[in-house]
Amino acid sequence: MEIKKILNGLERSPALLREMVAAVPPARMMEHRIAGKWCIHEHAVHLSKVQPMINERLRRFMAEAAPVFVPYVPGTSTPPDELMKLGLKESLRKFTADRRKFVGMLRQLNRKDWHKKGKHPEFDLYTPYIMARHLLLHDNVHMYRIEELWLTRELKKK
User: How far apart are CA 131 and CA 5, in angstroms?
Assistant: First the structure.
């Protein structure tokens, strides 16, 4: 039951993101309302940037006995302005296509595969189930930030 809920949420994220971004006035998309924090554009394209890495992780879970993963930390191995340079429309299109592939791969897993263990230095336990649930929560964090940046009248420094 929980797997089905996670799959449904992951499938719906691209459409919700597109709907949210379409409602934001263009002048607000690249506005950095909090110094040193991402703008709406960066949050939106980040989801597209991360998805191929997650797809590769799932491919490795499916192909390897006990995959070992390297953490992804935005901004540490890429230029700080990388996300600002990405096109929004293309990123949203790519996110939708890459997410569809990911959910399709997840649907191929049997019950046992969902709980196959891999190693990730940031987690005590890392399985396809945990990775998929984490990704859904990750989507929601960034979409919440988009809505917060868009709709909040005055943001206090966090």
Answer: 14
**Do the beta carbons of residue 43 and residue 146 sit within 8 Å?**
yes
**Tokens read off for 89:** 């429309």
Domains of the chain in sequence order: 2-151 (1.20.120.450)
User: In the numeric block, which tokens belong to residue 13?
Assistant: 């994220």
pTM given for the model: 0.92
For the chain, the farthest-separated pair of C-alpha atoms sits apart, in whole angstroms, at: 50
User: Which has the closest alpha carbon to 48: 69, 78, 17?
Assistant: 17
CB 118 within 8 A of CB 61: yes
Output the CA angle 118-56-121, nearest 5 degrees.
Answer: 35
Residue 33 CA to residue 155 CA, distance in Å, equals 7
- Residue 114: per-residue pLDDT: 97
